[in-house]
Amino acid sequence: MGHSSYLSLTPPPFIREHFELKFSFVTDDARQVALLLFIGQQINADQMTATGIEEKKDFLAVSFIRGHVALTWDLGSGARRIFTARPVSVSTMGGHSVHVGMRGRVAWLQVNNQPTVTGRSPGLMSVLNAHPSLFLGGHSSFNHSRLPSDLPLHSGFRGCIYDLVFRSREFADRDQEFDHHNTINHWLPPVQSGRGVRQCSIPSCRLRMSKTIGENNTSWSSNDVEDQFDDC
User: Which domains are seen in the chain, by residue range?
Assistant: First the structure.
């Protein structure tokens, strides 16, 4: 795998205990096992226990796994993963909407109009302690080696990611539909850095914020998030 393309963004300040996020993606590669989004702490070589096993790291990740979308999270007491019930259709002509939420140990995932999948992480920890960077479509480390759990087995995403937005419902009308044109306290994450990023070329991606990634390829424009990840 080597170095993947990625985009690094600033996560919102309310991410520790309760938040929601929404984004869309397009891909024509149904077989990939790839990272869509990562929020959390990274593994360093000097952060090992006396037995050589890495210490637990808080994280939340959204993956594309052979057509299914998966949400994996660990708040320090053990990881939990939930999947969509059905794979999404793969086409460059239509996008898929991903809606993720977390409140304490409980997290949920909805993709398109599929039923919402909910899970609870093990243990007593209920706060997400995150690195001050959010990664989209890949990660800056070689072979994703600084990612926790089994995420180093994920490649960078090949496709387009766009319209990423966060909100905390603590400050929103709970009856209000989640969409970035009509939300309270929504957060469009500012860009920090990236690698192999370019403007999305897929017709269904509206030309806003884009990313195309190295092994993946990512592109970036201005207000919302649009990322495309292509093989080099």
Answer: 6-229 (2.60.120.200)
